[in-house]
């Protein structure tokens, strides 16, 4: 498994979508300070689930989003995606079948963070779980950033332990252990809550037993109450229906009387209508006369207004004529001024015209000369530019050749140095030791595989034994569960029977108080008397009134009104055959039972009854009790089944004792089976642990074999590759030397050509300066003439505008003079017309006043006739009002009857609604109603029944059902309690198993890492010693410390080492961990910064060796570390605040250089 590429978009300084490939085992990321190299490390840590902004060099998680620059706006989200090559199948679980795996994280400005696995949305925990045990994670030993090297060495023992745990692959075990502990805590909390519920449930069951008896009594009373309510509603409906029929008859008679009065009223209305018509005729004539008078008044008013208007208009016309005379003089004066201005403008235009034409001709002549000179200058410039371009090209060629010579010399120097290094590396390669180690590991691996197969057979046998023990445990547990359920059912049945028995035998409060005050408990008759099988019903019938009666064995009964008692002293031991006393199993029986004979059937009872003396009776097994003049059939409901229940209670008590003993025995069997299962599981766990160790050993040997085989193959490939590179370097040196000789000759030739071009270029510059001077003079002269011509044109235009304005003013004043003269003529004509009609209007006004007087006289006569008609109508309407009042009074009476009818109808409907609410139909109720039923009697019976219900108080009608339901619930909760206890034991067993596996793996990993550290430290330092140590004996909690002593030093603590020594020590520890459990890749951020050149060389050699099994991606500024890489990736910041990538494959670059 290896990292193929990283995709970034909007992450810190990588604002544009950027893909960073990692094609080789060693990739170096280089670039100047502050260009964003460490952001690549932060991106990997962030996408692997880092949740602390501080570890990403920020204050909030949204700080990783690009926040803008001087030329860029901020973005709304960022994303990072890691693409892995999983062709080796390193990732297990559901993603093991994928050859390529992508992990992506996206965060937005509102702090919404999402994770994706192969483009499918997932949780952060899914990502961390995926890499558990692989050495990868946000804070694993595979990612070493700036400053982490020194912190790693100086970290606390518990912090250093985390790296060992990750290398051992037990981080996933610790996660499972934490989850298991949480489950145990939740399970115990559930058990506590369950015990509280069971305690409360027991109290509820006791209450429900007492409430069940009251519920039956309540149901019987409610049925009677419902019957009385239904029949009482039917009686009321009949009463209201009868009253409605009587009111219908009275309203019919009232309607007949109202119709008679209405006919009389219509006869009187005909005379009123005739007088109303005459009244309307007189009003119409009066209105016509009024209109005529109105028209005459308007005409008189018009003539008077016309005379007044004529006098006012005459004054206005005279004033306007005076004003128009003044305006006429003003217009004539202005017209003379405009004519003088027009003549002056015409004289000035005649002077300006020739001057403007002369300036235009001079401007055109200078413009032609300027155009000719500019064309000549352009033609010359084309030739001059060609000469300059040729001169500059020769200078560039000369400079390029000189740079090529320097570059070739640098390449020759590097190639010679590289050839020496390759020759040295070829001498250091030796594969004999690796070949022997490979042969030895292959033999060990075959032996480990055989032991692994043998261990698998032992695991299968242990698993079979565990399955058998588990089946026995399940069988025993099921038997115990069935017995427990049967006991609980019997116990519930016994409790219910006792409750019913106590309810049936309930006494009054006074009797109960007396019974409780006695020193010894007083039994009831049902507790002392029992019958032979089949005769319980007969005995209950005979003792129906005495079954719940207390039996006094000694002393006297209390003086309590209405009480009933039995005295044991009066019981007899004599039980004659054929009597009911002989059917009683008790030694003593009440004496009257000897007077009751038993019969097998009703016919035999009749026969015996005819033969028995007076005072004796006969009873059958079915409860038919007969005397000479009486008969009793069965027993009352409240006392029914008391003896049967008593018999069943005794039977259930015996069964409970047997079931409890059986349950104890089965519980012992379950415990024994549980112990056997635990032993089998422990044996299976040991076998599996041994098998796992064998499997791990075989896998480790296989991995070591493959690793050594890869190293051997890599060694051979490296030898071949180094020989090829060495020969290629020699060829390159020879080719570069030839190219340097050729370039030197070309430089000499170009220098001579450049000297000749310089003399030619000087003469061209002199000629250009002369032409440019002439061109500047002509342009200045042309601009001056154009400015003068433009001024003359503007002056001429202004004069033309003044001339046109003067012409328009003359025309306007002439039109205004004409308008004033026309207005004067019209006003004089209107003045003559106003003086003519004043005499004629005076005669017409006198005639209209005479006509107005005649119309006033006719109006008075019509008003007198109209008053007489209206007086007659008033008298007739008063008589008509009396008739209407009588009709209204009769209608009110009829409405009163209607209201009373509606009231009865509403009450009847209310009764029907009551019946509907009780789900009763009226017709069946009326059919079954007693003909002699009376409302008052039924109401009294209903009140008594309601009072009886009230005396019962609050009754739980669902007591019986609730009791059964709660009993079933209690059984279910008991089962849950047992399941929780079993689950708790299973979880605790899992914790123990995890602890065993953790101790074993941690110990094995610690020892292996310690051995590798002891081997690597002298190799890195060239001597010295280093080792790991534990701080405690408990392998689950112990911390880890490191001690290192470089060559020649005897320091007492790790803190006394220098920065470079701490860095090399930390690298030795990290690489020791990688040797045991190599992570898919390792990220190093400037870890070589504190090292000198000699130590950098050792570091590079160690990384080169480890790169055969681990992919390295490192950030560096050191040239030696850069030369080690097979792929260079550069980070630049050409645009401020924005990082970009430049990748270079070293081998491809070398191949291109060879071409």
TrEMBL record:
HAMAP family in the record: Smc_prok
GO biological process: chromosome condensation; chromosome segregation; DNA replication; sister chromatid cohesion
Similarity-based family: Belongs to the SMC family.
SUPFAM superfamilies: P-loop containing nucleoside triphosphate hydrolases
The protein's name: Chromosome partition protein Smc
GO terms under cellular component: cytoplasm
Taxonomy of the source species: Bacteria, Pseudomonadati, Pseudomonadota, Gammaproteobacteria, Alteromonadales
Annotated PANTHER family: STRUCTURAL MAINTENANCE OF CHROMOSOMES PROTEIN 3 (PTHR43977)
Cross-referenced InterPro entries: P-loop_NTPase, RecF/RecN/SMC_N, SMC, SMC_prok
Stretches of the chain forming a coiled coil according to its record: 170-218, 244-376, 405-486, 642-907, 970-1000
Gene label: smc
Residues noted as binding ATP in the record, renumbered to the chain: 32-39
Main localization of the protein described in the UniProt heading: cytoplasm
Stretches assigned to the RecF/RecN/SMC N-terminal domain: 3-405, 859-1139
Subunit structure: Homodimer.
GO molecular function, one term: ATP binding
Annotated keywords: ATP-binding, Coiled coil, Cytoplasm, DNA-binding, Nucleotide-binding
Species in which this protein is naturally found: Saliniradius amylolyticus
Domain observations: Contains large globular domains required for ATP hydrolysis at each terminus and a third globular domain forming a flexible hinge near the middle of the molecule. These domains are separated by coiled-coil structures.
Function: Required for chromosome condensation and partitioning.
Cellular localization per UniProt: Cytoplasm
